[in-house]
Write a structure and sequence with these properties.
Blueprint (H helix, E strand, L loop, with lengths): L6 H29 L9 H25 L4 H26 L6
Helix pairs in contact: 1-3, 2-3
């Protein structure tokens, strides 16, 4: 028998979705600051932010569909769907935040 979800499972899923949104916002801010010349970003960052999305969204949809087809609770389907996006966003945030602000001359 499968584990019946309780309130804490749903709260955990909500917290993971909130964290994804917060980290996504941080990555967007760092990239926009890079485009404005304030933050030190790699020269190919604009290309990278466009090309990485299809691959991550395909993985997200695949993992969510696998969870749904196996009969998982909807909160677990959401968690499976956001896990690839969370990994990519977390990696981008760490990578971009290490570079620091651009030195103005």
């Amino acid at each position: 028998m499968r584990h019946a979800p309780n309130m804490f499972d749903l709260m955990s899923t909500g917290a993971k979705v909130w964290r994804l949104g917060f980290e996504t916002h941080n990555v967007i801010v760092l990239r926009v600051m890079g485009m404005a010349g304030v933050w030190n970003t790699p020269f190919d960052e604009s290309w990278r932010m466009v090309t990485e999305k299809p691959h991550e969204f395909i993985k997200s949809g695949r993992d969510g569909m696998i969870a749904a087809m196996s009969g998982a609770h909807p909160s677990k389907v959401v968690e499976a769907s956001i896990q690839p996006l969370d990994r990519a966003t977390n990696a981008n945030r760490k990578r971009l935040s290490k570079r620091g602000p651009r030195r103005l001359r």
